[in-house]
Model the fold of this input.
Amino acid sequence: MRSGLVAVDQASPRNCNSCGTALATGFLCTHCGRLQPLGSEENYFSVLGFAPRLQLDTVLLEKRFYELSRALHPDRFTTSDAENRRISTERMTLINDAYRNLKTSALRRSYFLKLFGFHSAANQKNPRIPVELAETWFELQDALAESPTEAASKLRGFEVELGEFRARKLQALLAIEAEVDAALDKLDPAQSAGTRSDAIAVLAEKLLAEVQGETYLDSMTQNMEHMKKLLL
Done:
């Protein structure tokens, strides 16, 4: 599993907002001790010291989150001036949101697609039932209306079929994620956040289609669980 971890000063070189000294980290000036206000270029990945990637080392992610939480928690700045207290609160709010969205693969995919501009209504398509599951699914619906006993048997078979199908789709999803990350690795680190080359755009469209398919399968799984309560 790739880490995706980058040094903040390499990804986004900045100078202190107060004294102008070059920053060793993105959030604190070691020269004058001032916390740095959030920059417009910062995002959930960058505030935790990561380059935008779909496959992250979640152990490193958690470690980085707790390191930053200890360094920036508002309790550390109770005796500081109002500006430092405000920045501490703003940064901790963003860091908490970032960790919540990046620690799980589903939320991370959703944020990644949004970061790269694949979240507008124009990009949303109505997913259809997978062809591989359609026949069994519709047979199950018919059985529900005609014979609960037969439906219970078909439901058990469909549950196995759906589980196997989801396992195959997950592998396909992970393969696309690896392709996207590999394409991003070829970009200049300073340009990778939100950069959409033609190759990345094509891969992100494929990823979006897979994610929408996963959403449909989630809904199908919920329907199946409801049927199990009624029949089994």
